[in-house]
Amino acid sequence: MARRDTPEINAGSMADIAFLLLIFFLVTTTMDIDAGISRRLPEKQPPNAPPPPIIKEKNVFEVFVNKNDDLLIENEYHKIADIKQMAMDFIDNGGGIGNPMPNEVAGKDCTWCKGTKDPASSDHPNKAVILLKSDRSTQYGTFIQVQNELGRAYTTLRNRLAKDMYGETYTDMVNKLSKDKGNESLKAKITTIKSMYPEIISEQEAN
Amino acid sequence: MSKFSKKKKGMPAINTASLPDIVFMLLFFFMVATTMRETSVMVTNKIPTATEVKKLEDKRLVSTIYVGESLDKGKDGDGDKIQLNDKIASISDVRNFIFAKRADISDDEVDYMTTLIKADEKSSVGTINDIKKELREINALKVTYSTNIGVEKE
Q: Which of A32, A134, B7, B69 is the most exposed place for a label (fewest CB within 10 A)?
């Protein structure tokens, strides 16, 4: 029996079909990854909760963004570019005894602080509170810029500390952890750094 | 003139046999690298840029709230609007929106849920504060202010 050739299938329209699918996916999908500044809101207090402990004036760093998007740090006008350095000086001051570190009973001096140890500024990074006040009609963009600068202040301090303790920056460590999720020793290191410079930012509405 | 007459008339057809392969390659790239668009944004949404950002890992655990001025002012009026899912909503709807999201998530993962606030940079902080107050009431404490990822200049 003579072998019959199967006729070749015309694949000319394959490209058209593929293009159609491609365009469908281009239109219905997005490429952006959600990212942003993470904050944790304070827990809701029960109505009969005891009044919050009084924080010493010197342990509070007040940043106020008013309705004209002007910036007042400790009641003085400043530029957004100034926040980072001022916040760092404040957090890193280490002028006294801090709250007890995790798994410790008594509070100690901040041995890793490199600040001026000014008695009129914060006692310890874990006592230093940044109070971010904003008006109702403050622009959100400015608010985020300020948040970002405050975040940068903490990151810079954490980077410095991580470099001294473990020889690599905090940012690198966090990036490494996101690629290697199960790395417990790295996780522990990051937690240590975080507890030595905890991010204490309180957001408040001024009226 | 024999030199010229040798030249063939017309162009030879270009072989397009590899065209589907190229297009399929592009198609697969887009299928892998992108995610489905879930909602169409009905408010102005030019989000600010920041450098200290954290990427949100698990999309399942993220509930997104859009804030901005309505694109259809004739219908919704002026001022900051809150968009939940595909509707412009009011502050009091935020609770039910989060509760509805929580219903889809297993109980032990509820603590890891994040609320992503995608607010326009021109919107006012007061609106954001109202949302935060609502979230605090229902104990949805993890909040992320959505930003573009900026490059640190120094």
A: B7
